[in-house]
Amino acid sequence: MNQPMSDTQADQVTGTTPATDRKILVEVKGLKKYFPIKSGILFQREVAAVKAVDNVSFHIYEGETLGLVGESGCGKSTTGRTILQLYEATAGSIKFQGQEITNLKGAQLRKMRREMQMIFQDPYASLNPRMSVGRIVAEPLVVHNIGTKQEREDRVAELLELVGLNPYFVRRYPHEFSGGQRQRIGLARALALNPEFIVADEPISALDVSIQAQVVNLMQKLQETLGLTYLFIAHDLSMVRHLCDRVAVMYLGKIVEIAESEELYTNPLHPYTQALLSAVPVPDPVVEEKRQRIILKGDVPSPINPPTGCNFNTRCPVSVDMCYQEDPGLIEVQPEHWVACHRVD
Q: Roughly how many angstroms between the first and final C-alpha of the chain, as a whole number?
């Protein structure tokens, strides 16, 4: 059951209080999402929980793209879905346009969802194969009872043109399109209600490399044209650097570092961030040959039973005794550069 935080409790959460006067569109404080593991007769008794998102705090400025990166299973997608209330938060605060949304239900939540949409990872699984493209794109308008039939048809044609597809495709079905075209259809559907905020959950990871740049360029163009704000979830660090204004690095359900994109890539401070970036290929063979690769030992611990202290201590090459005893909170070591590490001053 969700437990929204009071303003006093939220102010006590460590990390990511903005130092500028830029308008914040989304603010997350102390967010937790645990999935219960049940056992016993009829699975009535909760014996443990998967701590998919564990005390996460960050904010997203209006009109920016915040990248959320990390290994598979670290909680990136769960964070995005919980922000949109597709999952009910276990605890914490989520504010959109200054309004707490974790306690919204029914008509209030439906109204808020018009402003917040999602682009899913798999363009093959996220589109109903039994529905035509016209019906898929028009579905949000039907659900929210917007416009007449003719107005919806006009809006669908406008949206298809906006994402670079022929409006005459409305009677075709998803199987008739390539992966890149299907992702454009998903993008058109997400734009149908004129949202302000879009969670893009690894929208290019299932696409051919030749198509990825087209989709990313389209997203940037739409952001400039429509004033969109993105949470861009990905594991392709080179694409994140190209697209995102700021980047948050996630490990085992926690944010370990947040900084402006160029700052993070040129001056990574957390050992996990340093290891991630060391794996990104450099197009200069001279630099690549001299660069030292950081190889992490061991496996990622289970989110059911994370380590005591810092979640990264079992794989960290520079851990000390304190790392096994105390969980580090996010601290601002430089303007807009936050790190959760005992070894960073």
A: 37
Check: CB of residue 163 under 8 Å from CB of residue 187.
yes
Q: What is the pLDDT of residues 188-238, one digit of tens each?
A: 999 999 999 999 999 988 788 888 888 899 999 999 999 999 999 998 888
Supply 104's token pair: 């919204």
pLDDT tens-digit series, residues 124-136: 888 999 999 999 9
Tokens of 136: 């898929």
Residue with tokens 């016209």: 134
* Whole-number Å distance between alpha carbons of 93 and 82: 11
Q: What φ, ψ does residue 312 adopt, rounded to 5°?
A: -95, 0
**Number of neighbours of residue 40 by Cβ within 10 angstroms:** 9
Residue 105: exposure state from Cβ atoms within 10 A (0-12, 13-18, ≥19): exposed
Report in angstroms the alpha-carbon separations of 121 from 165, 186, 204, 228, 233: 20, 10, 7, 19, 9
Sort 43 into a burial class: Cβ within 10 Å, 0-12 / 13-18 / 19+: exposed
Are the C-beta atoms of 89 and 33 separated by less than 8 Å?
yes
Taking the C-alpha atoms of residue 83 and residue 80, their distance in angstroms, rounded to an integer, is 5
Tell me the two tokens of residue 153.
Answer: 């048809």
For residues 253 and 82, the answer to whether their CB atoms sit within 8 Å is no
Beta bridge partners of 331: 339
Q: Are 96 and 25 in contact (CB under 8 A)?
A: yes
β-pairing, 246-251 vs 65-69, is parallel
Q: Identify any residues that bridge with 344 across adjacent strands, giving them in sequence order.
A: none
